[in-house]
Request: fold
Amino acid sequence: MLIDGFRRLQLDLVAFQEAVVVDGYDQVTDILGTGYHVAHQAGRETDGTGLSIASRWEVGKVWEETLHVTPRVDPSKIAVAEILAQDSLGGTLLFAHHNASWQLSFERERELQAVAGSRLVEDLLGKQEISHVVLAGDLNAAPDSTSVRFWQGLQSLGDTSVCYRDAWESIHPEDPGHTFTPRNPLVAGGDNWPLELGRRIDYIMVRCGHHGPTLDVASCERIFDEPVDGVWASDHFGVVAELSAQTWSGRPLP
Reply:
């Protein structure tokens, strides 16, 4: 199901949260096929799962950081890839892929992880000639949480602030857009989340300059949010966005 879906979508950039990479098997290549440059997080779990980024454009440098924030939670991860998309986007893009702590009561840790992840990106921006930054990942927090509000520029944390445009909210401001929902039997039917009400916890965001995002969000939709012959692709629905370096008037963004 994933193979058919991704190959039909023909995406330029893909962020995989828990892709399996072990000796003799690469799940990203298995799903996407050829035509992609793939960067795998080096520090993977013992079962081979971890963050992976796939790009149709050449991938330059890749940075990753393990975010040790408090003793009560396992470290989270962020990986940042330099995407050489000058011909299509007018410059280099940083693609930041973040996975925050999942426990409901650990918003404090998600706040600290958001600050640490944003500082990594800002530090890279100070050292590289970068035109755009896109953040994608499972932030494990709803849009009104402090950690997500921080990413959106609505809340400062740790004596710092950033601002990213939420792609889903840009297109669907009145739609909750749940990506983790009991409508999916992989959520409601398991032992872990029998009383889950539904949340939007998976995001695509574009970093803003002083006057707004550097890329226009032309569309944003959920993917893999319906079964095929009774099969659901994942316990999370995916999110796909079309981003453009053109304004609505057709002028290139500065």
Remarks:
- The chain has a mean pLDDT of 94.
